[in-house]
């Protein structure tokens, strides 16, 4: 499945979007490109939103700030992050999904890693993000007790390691 994620997305970006939905995808790609801003979160995320990826699970802005910290920590870990291809595959009431291939450059060593993923975004009736999942290689987020515990731990500790700009 991973080799087909965002296939053709270099030029064909899938389902056309406009308005808030286009802004959500643009903002999401800015986050993945190591270009976080508080405006992104204010503009499109509910304060009780859930963020999940294979290494983090954060619920609500108090804990969710962990994922904000994760996004603000990305430029330090990956000073260069380039979207190679992306393609919107679903735009339905309450749901937006797009596939992407992202190329990350590791700080200090310059090694690169290409990561395909399915970005699954659940929205409220006003198109604010209620759930944001980064599914690496298009695979479901790990659901086991140990994996969930490690992801919760990461969400609790990361804000103490990475500073987020104040408004």
Topology:
Blueprint: H1 19-32, H2 38-44, E1 45-53, E2 56-59, H3 60-77, E3 80-92, E4 95-105, E5 112-123, E6 129-136, H4 145-161
Parallel strand pairs: 1-6
Antiparallel strand pairs: 1-2, 3-4, 4-5, 5-6
Poorly predicted ranges (pLDDT <50, ≥5 residues)?
Answer: none
Radius of gyration: 15 Å
Helix content: 25-40%
Main beta sheet: 6 strands, mixed
Extended strand count: 6
What is the first-to-last residue Cα distance?
A: 41 Å
How would you characterize this protein structure?
Helix content is 34%, strand content 34%. With 167 residues, it is α+β, with helices and mostly antiparallel strands. The chain is globular and about 40 Å long. It starts with 18 loop residues before the first helix and ends in a 6-residue tail after the last helix.
Descriptive tags:
single chain, 167 residues, alpha+beta, six-stranded mixed sheet, 4 helices, 6 strands
Short description:
Helices cover 34% and strands 34% of the residues.
